[in-house]
Design brief:
single chain; about 450 residues; alpha+beta; Aminopeptidase; Alpha-Beta Plaits; six-stranded mixed sheet; four-stranded antiparallel sheet; 15 helices; 18 strands; about 25% strand
């Protein structure tokens, strides 16, 4: 199949270029450098008749938009959105260079291979091929390669929705992630991420009394207190929340009642996780619990000085319906008698968001995926991290996370590679996603 081989080579090559650009976003305004990948994408999409625009709210923090205008202004419109930034990687922990984009045994290795440069590349290839074939849809098709997703979207989607809404507005949006085939007794299940948890990034300040490091007896050492704060937060077990998306996910999996029932009961949920693979257990736990992860600590000034201040940064993810006040109540419960000895400061807060399930986009994805996996069915799921979909939901769009992956990439593999070591994706998955976007454009936009 020469055409299939050519498409696979095309998307593989583009993904390798994006990985090698190393657009690492550490959260600072000057990081990211997404303009490097915008240059690659501008060159790739140029000369095809596409309407291409770029936006740069901060130096180097550039996003690109390419558009195929629809012939009917009343027809539904679709935005395919991928981000170009990635999180940092420690090369010492990888088997291959995280920014080498190496192709090894049919897999592309590198930071961003699954989060989410694979989809960013496949969407670009699909849009270019549609343009080259003279695709003239009723509804407008827009491709967005957006900056700054990995640091809450300040210089990317948030900026564009707030200041350039006409350029990015669409009825339907597809972004990360979803689409990992999950085997079930009734065939493959393909999860569509219909919603996402909220993010409450919190700074916890612990204070003590400075003193000489040679006299630690009964000292008020802020670092020692902070260690106990971290221990209590890590040990805290929030209650299990069985929400509607979780119920519908389990109902769609067609699993035996003896497997489903424990996962629908707060009393038996923890025990049910023990029999699952680690990646799946982490995902299921995060789908049904507020999570607290103390990830950064700053404190101390000198080795012989007892520290008087330590700052902890805690990544808290909230469930649908939870507020910032609900989080603070849980934090106090976790810390117990230490709660009044520390200060809480919300560094960032975004509420959980979700789109309805019964929509034309859901129906479209269900139809088109059957062309690739005839025995498949779509199931709703909650993504446990944050994505740029939330900005578009807030202005009225239906936004889902999806892709299409080969049977070689298991749910377990996918879960542990997000922000993890040895991130990689197989070229068959790249082909499937590219072909899916073309099929979706034809099916949804006409």
């Amino acid at each position: 199949m020469p055409a299939v081989a050519e498409l696979t080579a095309d998307v593989t090559d583009l993904l390798q270029h994006l990985i090698r650009n190393g657009c690492v976003n550490d959260g600072s305004t000057g990081s990211g450098g997404e303009a490097r990948s915008v240059d690659v994408l501008r060159g790739y999409l140029g000369g095809t008749g596409l309407d291409v625009e770029t936006y740069e709210p901060q130096p180097g923090r550039e996003s690109l938009i390419a558009r195929i205008e629809g012939t009917d202004p009343t027809a539904p419109s679709l935005l395919l959105m991928g981000h170009t930034d990635v999180v940092p990687a420690n090369p010492d922990r990888w088997r291959h260079d995280p920014f080498g984009g190496d192709l090894v045994d049919g897999e592309v290795w590198g930071r961003g291979a699954v989060d989410m440069l694979n989809l960013t590349a496949s969407m670009a290839v699909a849009v270019r091929r549609l343009a080259e074939c003279g695709f003239r849809p009723k509804g407008t098709l827009t491709y967005l390669a957006v900056a700054d997703e990995e640091a809450l979207g300040t210089w990317g989607a948030e900026h564009l929705v707030a200041h350039e809404l006409d350029a990015v507005k669409a009825d339907y949006v597809i972004t990360e992630s979803g689409g990992i085939p999950i085997p079930s007794p009734a065939g493959l299940k393909l999860p569509i991420m219909v919603g996402e948890k909220g993010a409450y990034w919190c700074k916890v300040t612990v204070r003590g009394t400075p003193g000489h490091g040679s006299q630690p007896f009964k000292a008020d050492n802020a670092l020692v207190t902070a260690a106990e704060v971290v221990r209590r937060i890590a040990a805290y077990e929030p209650s299990t929340q069985i929400h509607d998306v979780w119920r519908r996910f389990l109902a769609g999996m067609d699993l035996p009642d003896e497997m489903i029932a424990p996962l629908l009961s707060p009393e038996s949920f923890a025990g049910a996780l023990e029999g699952l693979p680690l990646g799946m257990a982490r995902q299921f736990h995060a789908c049904t619990h507020t999570t607290f992860s103390p990830n950064i600590a700053h404190g101390g000034s000198k080795i012989n000085t007892i520290p008087d201040t330590v700052e902890l940064e805690v990544d808290i993810r909230t469930l649908p319906g939870q507020t910032a006040e609900d989080v603070e109540v849980q934090l106090r419960a976790a810390l117990g008698d230490l709660a009044d000895r520390v200060e809480f400061t919300a560094a960032a807060y975004d509420a959980s968001s979700a789109s309805p399930i019964d929509t034309p986009l859901w129906d479209c994805l269900t139809r088109t995926t059957k062309r690739f996996y005839a025995d498949s069915a779509t199931v709703p799921m909650l993504i446990v991290g944050a994505t740029d979909a939330r900005f578009f939901r807030r202005v009225g769009a239906t936004a889902y996370g999806f892709g299409l992956f080969s049977r070689n990439l298991t749910f377990e593999d996918f879960a542990v590679m997000f922000h993890g070591d040895d991130e990689r994706v197989d070229t068959e998955s790249l082909r499937l996603s590219t072909e899916l976007w073309q099929a979706v454009a034809h099916d949804l936009l006409g």
